[in-house]
């Protein structure tokens, strides 16, 4: 049976919320997820001579990206759990959620 799935990206810059957000995906059946350590644009721009004087070390903050695939029917539940964890995402700086429909998805990952 083919289940329609969606791809979620949860960008996390709040260190204290990361483990709670990651826990959401460990509790969902039929979920494949990975974490990518990232850096904001300022980290890379600071290495360029043109921008080096404008950006401080404070811009090199905490960045993690949770990439997950869940069945389409669970997307709203995941978003609800994220909102419960961090509050209103639209009003919160430091967490961003995107959901994308996929034309094709096969396979799975271990959590």
Which helices and strands occur, and which strands form pairs?
Blueprint: E1 5-12, H1 15-26, E2 32-37, H2 41-45, E3 64-71, H3 75-86, E4 95-101
Antiparallel strand pairs: 1-3, 1-4, 2-3
Helix pairs in contact: 1-3
Task: Walk me through this protein's architecture.
With 111 residues, the protein is of the alpha+beta class. 26% of the residues lie in helices and 26% in strands. The protein contains three helices and four strands, in the order βαβαβαβ. It has helices spanning 15-26, 41-45, 75-86, and strands at residues 5-12, 32-37, 64-71, 95-101. The protein has a four-stranded antiparallel sheet, with helices on one face. α1 (15-26) packs antiparallel against α3. The longest helix is centred in the N-terminal third of the chain and has 12 residues, at 15-26. It is globular. The mean pLDDT is 87.
């Amino acid at each position: 049976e083919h289940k329609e799935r969606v791809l979620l990206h949860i960008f996390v810059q709040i260190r204290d919320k990361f483990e709670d957000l990651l826990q959401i995906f460990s509790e969902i059946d039929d979920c494949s997820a990975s974490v990518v350590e990232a850096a904001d644009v300022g980290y890379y721009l600071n290495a360029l001579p043109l921008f080096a004087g404008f950006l401080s070390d404070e811009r090199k903050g905490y960045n993690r990206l949770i990439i997950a695939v869940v069945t389409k029917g669970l997307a709203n539940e995941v978003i609800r759990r994220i909102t419960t964890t961090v509050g209103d995402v639209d009003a919160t700086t430091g967490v961003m959620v995107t959901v994308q429909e996929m034309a094709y998805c096969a396979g799975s990952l271990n959590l």
